Amino acid sequence: MTGATLAQTADSLVYSYLVGTSPATLTVYRGSADTTYVGYVRDDEQVKPLGLANFALIGAPTSISELPTTGTSTYRLTVAQIGTSAAGQALVVDAATRRITGTVAITLTGGSSTINVVFQGTVDPQTGRLAGTAVTADGAYAGAFQGRLYGPAGAEIGMIFDLADRSGNDLPGILVGRTG
Question: Which of 18, 39, 177, 178 has the most Cβ atoms closer than 10 angstroms to its Cβ?
């Protein structure tokens, strides 16, 4: 690929290239300062007149045999892509019921507003995958999330969510976090 470049920052690797004559960027993120086992990838392509963004989680998923089966785990979170979250934001996974619950306040990029996103879902004991709904507390945006637990005994969590309003405006994002 002619003109391809690779740049490294403190928390990511950025690979810029062309798809035909359209610019594209693949960014691999470490996750957060707290995470060791989970990170994420963002792939951006400028396909005129649209800009497309794709997300993927990467890392060392928790093996099925190591998934917790008792107790609850609280994950301190970092939000990426659509905004940021204040310290202390958390999701709870109840291992016995296989339920995921929590509300995360997200300040949108640019600081224009804060949305409270309510996450409710389940952990599939056969695959270790997480899935459920994500809805803003005011009902303006609704969507879904998916992800999984990462590291030994589910020490970390990674989720991708996508919210949309009634007009189809999209708010995709990433959550990564760790227990403790």
Answer: 177
Tell me, letter by letter, the H, E, C secondary structure of 121-138: EEECCCCCEEEEEEEECC
Contact (Cβ atoms closer than 8 angstroms) between residue 158 and residue 146:
no
Does the reported pTM lie above 0.70?
Answer: yes
Contacts 24+ apart (CB under 8 A), 21-28: 22/46, 22/47, 22/48, 28/58
Residues contacting residue 167 through CB under 8 Å, at least 6 positions apart: none
Nearest to 156 by CA among 86, 51, 82, 78: 78
Distance (Å, whole) CA 77 – CA 174 = 10
Residue 13 or residue 128, greater confidence: 128
64-179 fold:
Porin (2.40.160)
Q: Give backbone dihedrals phi and psi of 66, rounded to 5 degrees, phi first.
A: -100, 0
- Residues 58 and 38 sit within 8 Å (Cβ to Cβ): yes
